[in-house]
């Protein structure tokens, strides 16, 4: 597990030999256009028929690619993003508004 996933895991019921769902949230900042947002994911961990792990990401009920492989800016479609633990964008917006 990478450092971002370890820091942002909210709940996990992952077992070695079971099919489970983890819930993770990330903050994103686009280095191209400056847009920032937060997104949560339901990550299903299953074992395939060949015994290999299968990891499937969902956001808002839709299957999506892993945000860690090639993230895409929802504003400009850029691929140069900073991925941070959840809450970072909200904290920056709060500080900017004086709240």
Characterization of this structure:
By secondary structure, the protein is of the alpha+beta class. It has one domain. Helix content is 15%, strand content 41%. It is built from two helices and six strands, in the order H-E-E-E-E-E-E-H. Strands 1, 2, 3, 4, 5 and 6 form a six-stranded antiparallel sheet that branches. The protein is elongated. The protein starts with a helix and ends with a helix.
- Mean pLDDT comes to 79
Strand element count = 6
Number of helices: 2
The largest β sheet comes out as: 6 strands, antiparallel
**What sequence of helices (H) and strands (E) makes up the elements?**
HEEEEEEH
Beta-strand fraction estimate = 35-45%
Q: What is the first-to-last residue Cα distance? A: 34 Å
Give me the Rg, rounded: 15 Å
Helical content stands at 10-25%
Secondary-structure content class: alpha+beta
Q: What labels describe this entry?
A:
alpha+beta; 15% helix; 99 residues
SSE layout and pairing:
Blueprint: H1 3-8, E1 9-11, E2 20-30, E3 36-47, E4 53-59, E5 62-64, E6 81-85, H2 88-96
Antiparallel strand pairs: 1-2, 2-3, 2-6, 3-4, 4-5
């Amino acid at each position: 597990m990478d450092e971002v996933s370890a820091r942002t895991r909210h709940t996990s019921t992952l077992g070695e030999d079971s099919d489970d769902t983890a819930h993770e949230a990330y903050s994103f900042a686009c280095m191209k256009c400056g847009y920032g947002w937060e997104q949560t994911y339901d990550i299903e961990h299953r074992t395939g028929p060949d015994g290999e792990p299968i990891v499937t990401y969902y956001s808002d009920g839709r299957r999506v690619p892993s945000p860690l492989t090639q993230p895409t800016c929802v504003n400009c479609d850029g691929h140069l993003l900073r991925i941070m633990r959840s809450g970072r964008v909200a904290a920056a917006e709060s500080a900017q508004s004086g709240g």
